[in-house]
């Protein structure tokens, strides 16, 4: 593995491992699928990513996911057994589509474009992490990852 590839792999893994330790210590879902692409995006960027993009993007996704889920599919989850052509399946599909549409529009409008936030919105809108407690954990996890990214870039610039 080349030097850059090794550095990117180690840094992205450490970003997720840090949150994995918090998950382990608290039992709360501090690791969820959209953090992998966020870690990769952060460590492959040449400078520090703007907070507006990373934090703002995930907040757009979170808000859109909560709105879509609670409007269209409360009580359902993509992990449940869903029959073909079922009303529940249709409600979840609509929730997912609406959440991505709202997230994409909000991110562009607010100049907070961060692609992994479209995964966050689906995680919420499809009932995987649909509650306010989970929303607080998502915000804390993204903020923690971003903070570690900024600290890492600052340390590297000084040393």
How many helical stretches? Answer: 6
Helix and strand pattern:
HHHHHH
Number of strands: 0
Strand content: under 5%
Main beta sheet strand tally, sense and closure: none
Transmembrane segments: 12-35, 55-78, 90-110, 122-148
Protein name: HPP transmembrane region domain-containing protein
Domain HPP transmembrane region: 6-128
Organism: Rubrivirga marina
Description of the molecule:
Helix 2 (35-44) packs parallel to helix 6 (132-158). This protein has one domain. The radius of gyration is 17 Å and the shape is globular. It has helices at residues 3-26, 35-44, 51-72, 87-110, 117-125, 132-158. It is built from six helices and no strands. The chain is mainly alpha-helical.
What does the secondary structure layout of this molecule look like, with pairings?
Layout lengths: L2 H24 L8 H10 L6 H22 L14 H24 L6 H9 L6 H27 L1
Helix pairs in contact: 1-2, 1-6, 2-6, 3-4, 3-5, 3-6, 4-5
Organism: Rubrivirga marina
InterPro entries: TM_HPP (IPR058581)
Keywords: Membrane, Transmembrane, Transmembrane helix
């Amino acid at each position: 593995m080349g030097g850059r590839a090794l550095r990117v792999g180690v840094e992205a893994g450490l970003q997720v491992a840090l949150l994995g330790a918090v998950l382990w210590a608290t039992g709360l879902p501090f690791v969820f699928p959209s953090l992998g692409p966020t870690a990769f995006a952060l460590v492959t960027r040449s400078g520090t990513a703007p907070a507006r993009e990373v934090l703002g993007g995930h907040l757009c996704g979170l808000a859109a996911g909560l709105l879509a889920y609670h409007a269209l599919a409360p009580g359902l989850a993509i992990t449940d057994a869903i029959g073909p052509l079922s009303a529940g399946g249709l409600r979840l599909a609509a929730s997912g589509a609406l959440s991505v549409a709202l997230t994409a529009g909000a991110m562009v409008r607010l100049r907070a474009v961060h692609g992994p936030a479209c995964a966050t919105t689906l995680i919420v809108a499809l009932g995987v992490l649909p509650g306010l407690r989970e929303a607080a954990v998502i915000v804390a996890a993204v903020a923690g990852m971003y903070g570690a990214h900024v600290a890492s870039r600052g340390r590297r610039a000084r040393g």
